[in-house]
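Reading group handout, session on sequence-to-structure problems. Before we discuss, look at one worked example. The prompt was deliberately terse, the way you'd type it at a terminal:

> structure Metallo-beta-lactamase domain-containing protein

The input record follows.
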Amino acid sequence: MTLRILYDEHSGALSYLLADEAAHEAALVDPRSGDWPVLMALLDEAGLRLRWVLRTHEHDGHDDQPPGEFGRLLRLGAPVVQGARREGVRSVADGGRLPLGAGFVQVMHTPGHTAHCQSYLWRDRVFCGDLLTVDACPRQPGPAQPAALWDSVQQRIFTLPDETLLFAGHGRHARAVSTVLEQRRWSPHFAGLTRDGFFARMGSMAAQR
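And the output record:
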């Protein structure tokens, strides 16, 4: 089992390479075309076949930046999986399992940051995009659907075992990983809040933008 993390200093965006080296298979989570040379080198060096391209979210039709980014993802030659439907995307039901080596990646529908966000459970870790880093995404500094976000976090993420590792889509100071226990107790956006309190905080954030 291999996990590699790539961090973009300018945007704070995080991408991940998941691999089962024994089976020579890999998946990419939220890859960026600017990282292609590094990613291809990593795959070639380990003799890995790219099995899946997994996207936690698309910004409702506005994330094709730089121009042609989505088309470049398709040219990687592996199925692109995301929640938002568009030509060339593989749609997977909630709970669906994507084979990866001797194991699998499980798809979790977790809307909120955008309407069609998905998270991906791989072994003891979840790649959950910007569900928990609510205000860290430069293209969308607040949730598109606050009610759905609250439900996704409280019902899908915080019900996982305490030790489950959570990997973000964006990070400040390159902080990529936390745990369910840590976020449940100390998240600046969710810990100690009621549902109404969360909505009030999101409304206050929106008013400041």
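Points for discussion. First: Confidence is low (pLDDT under 50) at residues 60-64. Second: Helices lie at 36-46, 69-74, 146-157, 180-186, 195-208.
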